[in-house]
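Re: Re: ligand-bound prediction request (bumping)

Still looking for help on this. To restate: I need the protein modeled with zinc ion bound, output as structure tokens. Inputs repeated here so nobody has to scroll up.
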Amino acid sequence: MKAIYLCIVMVFLNTGWGTAAEFWGRTGHRATGEIAEKHLSNKAQKKIKELLDGASLAFVSTFADEIKSDEKYRPYSPWHYVNFPFDSTYEDHPKSDRGDIVQAIDTCIKVLKDASSSKEDKAFHLKLLVHFMGDLHQPLHVGKAEDKGANTFQVRWFDDGTNLHTVWDTKMIESYNMSYSELASNADMLSKEEIEALESGTVTDWMYESRELCLDIYKNTDIGEKLGYRYMYRYMNVMRGQLQKGGIRLAHVLNDIFG
Ligand code: ADE
Ligand code: ZN
Ligand code: ZN
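Reply:
Sorry for the wait, this slipped through. Here it is.
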């Protein structure tokens, strides 16, 4: 009997079902926060430090995942992603009344721009905004409902059973083996024009950019496929680019809010 229980536990661990697989891993979020910090105006930096009582954007970037374990914050769970069918558009598909990542980012910006919001409310929504701008750049957070943004799309990562969502949240970045600050300081060198090009557009435009990548990932990945070095070679620079775009765009949004 004991052996059967052990087997069940091992199957769960091996497939990744037992892990909190629903978030762009900590390293990714922190790298995006750290990159954003480097692109903040002095004024925005000062106001953000005040609101966060001195904490860095990297430090607060994982807050929205940490609160998930508290029942009280359950309504915020759908704010981390958006799902709509591959043959539809965001506009044509009925919006989730529980919210989605695009609505969430808009709400956070509104609360932060509203002079009547309390400091506590502003700090809370700032932490959420830092996190959701990271999630927006995880291509599988702009996915489809049937497989929960590829959370039920089973694959292998080297010799481990997992799912495609987790490969993009954590596995690939873990295998790359750089800390968040190393990822931030080794981000691609961009010209002023390239940065301006990345800053242009709306939250919805940026969501659609992630959607394109999501479609590309589905085209290039088979259910049950064993992914490893070849996959990293194909996608690690795409992932690094997403972390950087997330950081630059987060700073742009914050500079607009805080002047
Ligand atoms: N749960 C359901 N859909 C999801 C998605 N696209 N990303 C993360 N978690 C999800
Ligand atoms: Zn998240
Ligand atoms: Zn995720």
